[in-house]
Amino acid sequence: MVKPNLRTKSIGTKVSEDEFARLEQAAQKASKTLGEWCREVMLGSANGQPTNAAAVNAGAEALMAEVVALRAILLNVLFKQANGERLTSEEMQRLIERADSDKLKKARERLEQTAHSKQS
Predict the structure, then answer these.
(1) Which of 32, 48, 57, 101 has its CA 20 to 30 A from that of 84?
(2) Is 116 strand, coil or helix?
(3) Are residues 75 and 110 in the same domain?
């Protein structure tokens, strides 16, 4: 018979009232006790699993990157049309490639700007 892996060690931390309330909410959302939820999150982080916040940030970054690229393409196309010029398929392909090449960098910059403005 295999002995169960007993949990004999304890980890403690201090949190504010607001932080405690947020932690309790997150645990309730996951239908877990606060201790179970904290253990799962800590072990998941230690094992390299992304937290929900990391997954949300990655999703926001990907979405923002696509919006940034689409905006760059659209503005360039509209500018050409407003000047009475036609866009060749080669020019369109170059616009797409240029927008795709730096979309992640620009998306990160925009998300950082948003985060800094919320902190101010």
Answers:
(1) 101
(2) helix
(3) yes
Q: How many CB atoms lie within 10 A of CB 26?
A: 15
Q: Are residues 36 and 66 in the same domain?
A: no
pLDDT of residue 52: 67
Residues 25-34, mean pLDDT to the nearest whole number: 90
Statement to judge: residues 105 and 67 lie in one domain: yes
What would the DSSP string read from start to end of 62-114?
HHHHHHHHHHHHHHHHHHHHHTT----HHHHHHHHHHHHHTHHHHHHHHHHHH
Q: Evaluate if residue 81 carries a pLDDT over 90.
A: yes
Whether this model's pTM surpasses 0.85? no
| H or E stretch at 51 | none
Gap between the Cα atoms of 37 and 40, Å rounded: 5
Query: For residue 25, how many other CB atoms are within 10 A of its CB?
Result: 10
| Domains identified in the chain, total number | 2
